[in-house]
Structures are given as structure tokens and as C-alpha cells.
């Protein structure tokens, strides 16, 4: 099976290809702010991040809670939480952020920076200098606990999130270094210069319908048609940016975006103000762009725009300088007209390293309504920078596909998901080449009692398999109704995937389709190369118990699911009286069985003998033959079942299993390890 993607973590287009946007991630690490509190019922703690500067533009860092007044929707609200975050030396690794008292400063929690490479509206020069600036920023201006992401956009590939707020800065730098100029093949058509030239030719009395332009090879009529297509591409870009920013709005605190671009030509957005130009084209784009700038402010996304256009080669009226400058101004950031200036990064460092966090209880209506925010500081001659407003968290059913996709990635890949604290469950993933439709088995006991407390019933299930380089090599989605079972224990989820040999990280995400509440499990597996004459794989363990109930998502046909469950139950010593061990051996377990899948490619069938070697501190080493040894043949291999001495495992003694076939001389030896013991 070929790998999906080469350098990035790829989520299948069929699942995440939303409105033409492909979400491509190679890894994710979401950082949470200190003191992020959330009350699930009616009230949440709303956090407002504020920066205050003096006349010289330097951060003011000696304010107290009493210096701030907070208004939401025009009403003064009580500030119940207050944090002060001051600048730290970059060379020293900051300590973990802790809440500040009213009189002192706390260690700064991570800032969040998104490096955004715009290939649709940029030049080769702009991209090369963007790479240089981004690499320097990562090397000299990012603290160890800062979270950094990398995103790009092109007209051919859409939005690509290469890294989403990770603390692994070296990984981000590697991605920046690998950005190729070939991505400029996705540039939006920029016919503004040719268009302006044609208009001037018309003013001078030339026949624009018959005068070809060297730059485009088109007549004025042809340029106008192509320009309409360019305007449509602008609207697509705005739509993509809006979805991204709307998703980021639920991440607390400020998100600083270093936006590397030559800018959307001003004439496409705001017009050439020429009697021959069409005003309708610009008015639609103008409104859409201005609405996008409002989304920046309300989502607390601050843009530092780096202009990469070729100076002297383009006129101001058709360059992207104005649109980039407006983007920065409306979001509370800054426009850097010279992308090569060394002072750019120093300014960003100075503006982002000192800030305050104001917290107040606020009702959670979950209707997605917008609330205006105003912060007043009781000190003269200061400038206050804070988000202009925020949106209520809306219900999950109202989320866009893009929002659902990013939240799923958060659940699948982040050790501490930002959007919610999911229910955790143990996932057992192991090689089982005896199945017709897959060689990697996912098995988990569902925490049904806890799921019901969370209101989780009708769910989507996503199984993800990643290799050692964090590439996705398998992804399967389906639905399942966890409310169908009437019992809280002994209910298991299982699934299969087909993967090539290698070491894997496996994830299963169960997410309610109405509320978005989720449960997650993770495990590891190793699939070895085919052996000669055979191969023994890691065992699945069983203990006595009531008959288990198995649930399968809708990703497989009924006949495939039935055949798979039949094979799964063949692993059991006695399906009516045994349960699989997913994590810990139950305290009341009286016996322990191991089921080892095997493949056999040699002629004839093996007759395995199993010997157990027990050793440990304070005991006499001994070798004993395994009791109740059963061999079941299935397909190209089978299952080897044998009982394992339970007490030595409980006491932590070393138990080694040796499996031999006398006729072929095949032998296998491995220490038995039960998860949690």
C-alpha cells in the first residue's frame, strides 16, 4: 500500500476536501494557556489578551488589575482573573507559565505564531526572502515554549497546514527550508499591469480590441475576461482565509500571523478609479475583503504583513502594498514594506513578548453570536491593543466542515487537545495477518458509562495509522451508535486496516455527531516482513469473563464485518467465557491466555511446541511446557493459543515464551509483556 503523502501528514481528500480546501498536516502540537478554565454548563471564563504601549511603542509592563476596565457589549464586567506576562531572555528556557498575582509578573506562557506563505500573490523574490526571514525568526526570536505553525496557500493546491502550532521548532524550520519555488505555479493570474497598459492605449486612441499586449498576449476584451477570473480567485482566497480564521477564534489568546506575500493587487479589491473600469467587480471583492478584516480582529488574529513585491517594477495602484497595509492595520499588526529589513523581526519580538490577560465569567449561549469588547486603561499617553470582540462558541452541528476537520486533527494528534478534554480509553493495536481485509487490528473496550455521561451516542469513528515519520499510511472513517448497548462493561470496538511492514502509531477518535464531544485512544504496533518459513506476532491476552459484545463502525460492508468478527472470535480460547485484555489485567482474573497470530509460507503445516521460561529476583528459574496449547489454522497462517502463568506476570517476574516447530527447525523467542504489567 503506497504512503499517502510524502512530507506531510495527509488527511484523505475525501474526508477533508471541503470547499476546495485541502487540509494537509505533518504533525500537530496544540499548547494550552495557563489558567484556561471552562465550565461546561452555562458559564465559561472568557480570556482577553491585552497589550499596552507607550508613546515610543515600548510595552508598558507595570500595570495592575485596577488599571484596567473591561466592557463587553457596552456593559462593564468584573475582571475576576488577571495575569501579567513580561519579556524573558530568549537564550534561557522559560519556566512553565503560572498565574500571576496582582502584584507580580508570571513566567510567560507560549506565544502562538503562524508563518503564512502566500504563493497565489507573490513573486520568486518574495518567496526567497520570506524563507530567509522565517528561518531567522525561528533561529533567533522564538522562545522554546512558543508554539509555531506553518501554513501556505496556492490557487492549485488550496490551503495547506504543514504544521499547526507545534513546540518542535526544528520541524517547522525543516518545512520552511523545503518550500519550493515550484509552488508559484499556483499563483493567481495577475493581469492588472497588462490591464492598465491596455486602458492607457485606449485613452491614446489605439484599438485595444486589436492591439495585443506583449505581457499577456491578450486583447483588452480578453484581459477583462481573464481579470474576472482573477477576481473570482480572490474571492476563493478570501473564503479560505475566513474559514481558517473562524476556526482559530476558539483558540484563546492572540495568534500572531507572519504573512509573507506581495498582496492582492489593490486594483482588484478597490478599483483603478478609471472611467473604463467596471465598478461592480471591485465592489463585491471590496465588501468581502473588508468583512475578512473584521474576522481577523474578532478572532484575535494579528497580522504582520511582509511585502515581497519587486520594487520599481509595479505601480502603487496595482501593487498589493495597500491591501497588505490595511490587513495589518485592521488586525492590530504592522505592515513591513521592505521584507529584507532586519528591524522587522525585532519589532515583532518587542510587540509580542509583554502582555496582560483579563478574565471574566461569561454565559455560554452556544449560538455563535458576536460580542464587542472594549478595554480601557486608566493611564494617560498609552495605546491599548486588544481584540475588538469575540464569538460565542456555537453548537457542533453548526460548525463548518473546515472547523470539524481541524478539531478532529486536534483530537487525533495533540497530546493535550485544545478544543476539549476528551474521554480517554486504551487502544490495543496489533499485527493480525489472519484477516482477509487487513493485517492491523484495532481493539478497545468502550468506556460506555463515561460516554453516556458526556452525552455521546451516535458517533463518527476515525481510525488513523501513522508511520515513524508521522506520515499517514491508513485512515478509515465510519459511524456507530454507542447507545445501542445496554451494558457498561465488556463492549468492544474493533476495526482492521491493511498496512505495509513497519512501526506504527495508531489513533481512534470517537466523536458525537450532535455535540462534538469525543473520546480518544492510542496504541502502537509493529508489522514485520514476511518470515521464512514463518512469522510469530505479538499476542493478544484473555482472562475469564462474561461474553464480550463487539461493535463495528459502518466503514465495512455487513458481509465483511461478519467475516471479520468470526475471525476475531477465533482468537478466543472460548468466546463465551473470555474477554480480551486491552490494558491492565483485572484484579479478579484467575487465568491468563495468550493468542499469537502466525503466518506460515513453508510447505506443510507446523506443529508448534511452546515452552515458558520463568526467572526473577528471589525465585528459582525454571522452564515449564505451556498448558492447554491449541493451534488453529486460518488462511496463510493461524492462531497459537496457550495459557500463561498469571502469578509470575503479576509479580513482575521475567516470563519468556519459546515456540518451536521440530520438523522445519523454526524457532521464536520473546519475553511476554502485558500492557500495564
Tell me about this structure.
The protein is an alpha+beta fold and 677 residues long. Among the domains are: 130 residues, Immunoglobulin-like (Sandwich); 114 residues, Immunoglobulins (Immunoglobulin-like), CATH 2.60.40. It is built from 13 helices and 32 strands. The strands form six sheets. The chain has an eight-stranded mixed β-sheet with strand order 18-17-20-21-15-16-19-24. A six-stranded mixed β-sheet has the order 7-6-5-8-9-10, with helices on both faces. Strands 22, 23, 25, 26, 29 and 30 form a six-stranded antiparallel β-sheet that branches. Helix 2 links the parallel strand 5 and strand 6. Helix 4 runs antiparallel to helix 5, helix 5 runs parallel beside helix 7 and helix 7 packs parallel to helix 8. The longest helix is centred in the middle third of the chain and has 29 residues. It is elongated. The two termini are 34 Å apart.
Keywords:
677 residues; alpha+beta; Immunoglobulin-like; 8-stranded mixed beta sheet; 6-stranded mixed beta sheet; 32 strands; 32% strand; elongated; disordered N terminus
| Mean pLDDT value | 76
Tally the helices.
13
How far apart are the first and last residues' alpha carbons, in Å? 34 Å
Can you tell me the CATH superfamily of the domain at 400-529?
Immunoglobulins
The largest β sheet comes out as: 8 strands, mixed
- The unreliable regions are 1-41, 89-109, 186-200, 206-216, 273-281
Q: Supply Rg.
A: 30 Å
CATH topology of the domain at 400-529: Immunoglobulin-like
Provide the helix percentage. Answer: 10-25%
As a percent range, the share of strand residues is: 25-35%
Give me the count of strands. Answer: 32
